[in-house]
Amino acid sequence: MKNVTLLLAFLAAASGVAAKIVTKPVAYEHGGVKLEGYLAYDDTKASAAAKAPGVVVLPEWWGLTEYPKSRAEQLAKLGYVAFAVDMYGAGVVTGDPKKAGELAGQFYGRPLMAERAAAGLTQLVKSGLVDEKRVAAIGYCFGGATVQALAYSGAPLAGIVSFHGSLIPASAEAAAKNQAKFLVCHGAVDPFIKPEELAAFSKSMDEGKFDYQFVSYAGAIHAFSNPKADEIAKAAGLVGGVGYHAAADRRSWEHMRSFFAEIFAKK
Amino acid sequence: MKNVTLLLAFLAAASGVAAKIVTKPVAYEHGGVKLEGYLAYDDTKASAAAKAPGVVVLPEWWGLTEYPKSRAEQLAKLGYVAFAVDMYGAGVVTGDPKKAGELAGQFYGRPLMAERAAAGLTQLVKSGLVDEKRVAAIGYCFGGATVQALAYSGAPLAGIVSFHGSLIPASAEAAAKNQAKFLVCHGAVDPFIKPEELAAFSKSMDEGKFDYQFVSYAGAIHAFSNPKADEIAKAAGLVGGVGYHAAADRRSWEHMRSFFAEIFAKK
């Protein structure tokens, strides 16, 4: 009987039958701005008594839409404690590229980018469910750039993953502060990243002795991981250069998973 | 009792306890040259009744040394039928870069490169253990270039993996013939691959609409996957640019595994 129970428990764990995903909005504040992030975890896999690795999710320039929240839920299903970060302010989302450019524009090249992201990281850890030695950050488009900036600021991250992110070359100061391994998932034909930007980024990674992996996915353009990229782009009046790519989405997620298996392995 | 047996069977399969790797030299001939390849498989995972995916392994320019044979054995442990290909002739191996350059030099830019590799592919299939719809080719250095040439010739491959291979840009004819998905594992600071070679290769992949993934591994140089690269280079009098890189080795192997999971998935 004991073995039957064991077998059933094993099968339940393997198939995820017992998983229960808890999600909740989390109100916090940074620099006088009221923010609202989104916490997700599986309460059979993460608790105060049995802490799990944690991952912050940094949104596209549209703000904290359903998309980064859905990624937080997917991460929760993998057993991680995930926190989708609010960069703009509670409820501030847009589908207008001009507005999105303004919202994201306040961060590029300023310490605020890393600081606002770090405020989200603090909320993740404050959940009390996270093993602080095993924390990573992932981000999409603008959020991909944001996780680079967060790593460059010296945040205590085991790793970052940038999905079709803008690329910020690392300064020597950033290289000295950085603690994170990098996985950069790039659309091979993304027209928003110029070859010279790519070259400058790679050069800074090599010169700064970063531990990075840079993956180019054939046929993939900007926002390749977002299943709604095409309709969002159409509604926004963006023509070309933005779109979903199922193979690149699946492959980059798989690469993230094996990256996490490496960086979250207990020493 | 039945459940105990089930559980034990599961544990044995999961831990690989029951695995038995069969290896054997295989004599064959191509273009008047007597060749000897190396077949490896797990006879609990591949048989005439239960065919498995097959993988040919194309050696470095040193010839069919222990290194590609050890990779064939590793592939066998993963459940694949592997065949390490002989490109030069039975027993022809060298540690002398001048000699190796001459041996490899007879193939570059000539149909013989793909033809000699295809002769190995034929031997793999002739084992009678391989599901012919699920065949891939992997190669190292010179062998990385060889698997590209093999794909360009229109060989019936689900995919190829090039590890620190020389890069051969695809012609329009190659793009029309190619059936394989590509995974290219590249040392980010490999001094033997010039930036312009890399750019020409990527351009040809994009223009030819190849389904490829190109991964750059930080800090990795030429031959990064070969644990004996340093001692081989030293013995050969090669100074700099060649060496083992444990993280890139581990990561590229893992990427190969997830690539195989994709291309060998039953439709």
Structure description:
- The structure is a homodimer of 267-residue chains.
- With 267 residues, chain A is an alpha/beta fold.
- Chain A is built from nine helices and eight strands.
- An eight-stranded mixed sheet of chain A has the order 1-2-4-3-5-6-7-8, with helices on both faces.
- In chain A, helix 5 (142-152) links the parallel strand 5 (130-140) and strand 6 (159-163).
- Chain A is globular and about 50 Å long.
- The two termini of chain A are 36 Å apart.
Topology:
Two copies of one chain form a homodimer.
Chain A: H1 2-15, E1 21-30, E2 33-42, E3 52-58, H2 66-77, E4 81-84, H3 97-105, H4 112-126, E5 130-140, H5 142-152, E6 159-163, H6 172-177, E7 181-187, H7 195-207, E8 212-217, H8 229-235, H9 246-263
Parallel strand pairs in A: 3-4, 3-5, 5-6, 6-7, 7-8
Antiparallel strand pairs in A: 1-2, 2-4
Helix pairs in contact in A: 4-5
Offer a concise description of the structure.
By secondary structure, chain A is an alpha/beta fold. Helices cover 39% and strands 22% of the residues of chain A. The first copy, chain A, has an 8-stranded mixed sheet with strand order 1-2-4-3-5-6-7-8, sandwiched between helices.
What would the principal axes of the Cα set say about the shape of chain A?
globular
Q: Report the helical percentage of chain A.
A: 25-40%
Give me the count of strands of chain A.
8
Q: pLDDT below 50 for ≥5 consecutive residues: which ranges of chain A? A: none
Report the β-strand fraction of chain A as a percent range. 15-25%
Kindly report the oligomeric state of this protein: homodimer
N-to-C CA distance of chain A = 36 Å
Strand order of the largest sheet of chain A: 1-2-4-3-5-6-7-8
- Main sheet of chain A, how many strands, which sense, barrel? 8 strands, mixed
The ordered string of helix (H) and strand (E) elements of chain A is HEEEHEHHEHEHEHEHH
Largest protein interface, residues of each chain: A-B, 31 and 31 residues
Number of helices of chain A: 9
Secondary structure category of chain A: alpha/beta
Q: Mean pLDDT of chain A, rounded to whole units?
A: 94
Radius of gyration of chain A, rounded? 18 Å
